[in-house]
Amino acid sequence: MSSGTPSVLFVCVHNAGRSQMAAGFLRHLAGERIEVRSAGSMPAEEINPVAVAAMAEVGVDITAEQPKVLTTEAVQDSDVVITMGCGDACPFFPGKRYEDWKLEDPAGQGIEAVRPIRDEIRKRIEDLVESLR
């Protein structure tokens, strides 16, 4: 870990669902203690509205977020890189902590299907926050 605030980057292909929900939870649960980034190898036009709705149900507002393109700099600047099925799109740098979270893709799913994905992400984020203390 670098000195100061640890930083976490969440990556999924479209940066519209899973990575945005994860970033939303981490901001919500860790506040200023952890720097949060998210990006996608092929970012979508907008965030998945069902992901936004599922997060709103638990009091986390991600409406202002925009999908962003994954850059090498974003990976270099992060202590922890968490991929969500983006495969080989993520550049690898030695000395970083990498995790791959196998999560269902909420794209095209209704809210009933997205809620369990959201809840699984929250559980993983809570564990992550504990591990970064």
Reading the helices and strands in chain order gives: EHEHHEEH
SS element count, helices: 4
Helix content estimate: 25-40%
Q: Give Rg in angstroms.
A: 14 Å
Instruction: Count the beta strands.
Output: 4
Main structural class = alpha/beta
Mean pLDDT: 92
Strand order of the largest sheet: 2-1-3-4
Report the β-strand fraction as a percent range: 5-15%
Query: What best-fitting shape do the alpha-carbon axes yield?
Result: globular
Major beta sheet summary: 4 strands, parallel
Uncertain regions: pLDDT < 50 for 5+ in a row? Answer: none
- C-alpha termini separation: 11 Å
Structure description:
The protein is an alpha/beta fold and 133 residues long. Helix content is 37%, strand content 14%. The protein is built from 4 helices and 4 strands. A 4-stranded parallel sheet has the order 2-1-3-4, with helices on one face. Helix 1 links the parallel strand 1 and strand 2. The longest helix has 22 residues. The radius of gyration is 14 Å and the shape is globular. The protein starts with 6 loop residues before the first strand and ends with a helix. The mean pLDDT is 92.
Draw up the topology in text.
Blueprint lengths: L6 E5 L6 H13 L4 E5 L9 H9 L14 H5 L3 E4 L13 E4 L10 H22 L1
Parallel strand pairs: 1-2, 1-3, 3-4
Quick recap:
With 133 residues, the chain is an alpha/beta fold. It contains 4 helices and 4 strands, in the order E-H-E-H-H-E-E-H.
Keywords:
single chain; 133 residues; alpha/beta; 4 helices; 4 strands
